[in-house]
Amino acid sequence: MNTEPAVELEDVTVSYTRDQPILSKVSLRVNMGERLFIIGPNGGGKTTLLKTMVGVLRPDSGVVRLFGVAVQRFREWWRVGYVPQNAATLFERTPLSVGELLRSGMHTGKALDPVETLSLVGVDEPDKIIHRRVSDLSGGNLQKTMLALALINKPQLLILDEPTVYVDQTGVAALMNVINRVNRDWGVTVIIATHDVAAISTLASRVVCINRTALYDGDITHLLSSEELCRIYGFHVYTIQHGHRWSET
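Structure for Metal ABC transporter ATP-binding protein, as requested:
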């Protein structure tokens, strides 16, 4: 694995109101090609962490870098694909067609064809859906379109915030298969914040647990076999296997 950093945070503190930090002195390094899951209780700061990574929020203190560049000076945003929490609601009333939306996000000569990208994320009959209004899509196809928008430029870093919310088991499996594919075939660095511990319990990946600060950084297998998860969430946590091991194909 490439040891060059894609994302670095050094002693990052973020507050919405004075003297009440949502994140406190968080340090984190994610190397190129790595796949990282961020878990933690609701209100623990997962979304705040991702927003800080992409410069939506400015930290009170500390340093954030993307590909070695301070985030406030970073300009090569085609290298980053970001799907915020509930991203689909941002576009559910847009008059744009799916094709127009995807083409609006194309910023490099290496960008994928919109139909090809829709096929990649599992949209059925992408050559037909490309002409439909975004506002007319089903919830599932709208979420897939948001993921296609994040992938259209073949980014080097993909950041997803709670992508499995309101997705059934089949949808979660399909999403994880896409993530595995772009991580393996493109070398994309993947960072996913999720509340769904069970959904990732069959994946051998690095996990960071956030509850105001970074409380755990390591292998998920060790985490699930210890009492650490209970301490992080503040109550006993039961993990229920989804009964599906995500394909690496």
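The chain has one domain: 5-233.
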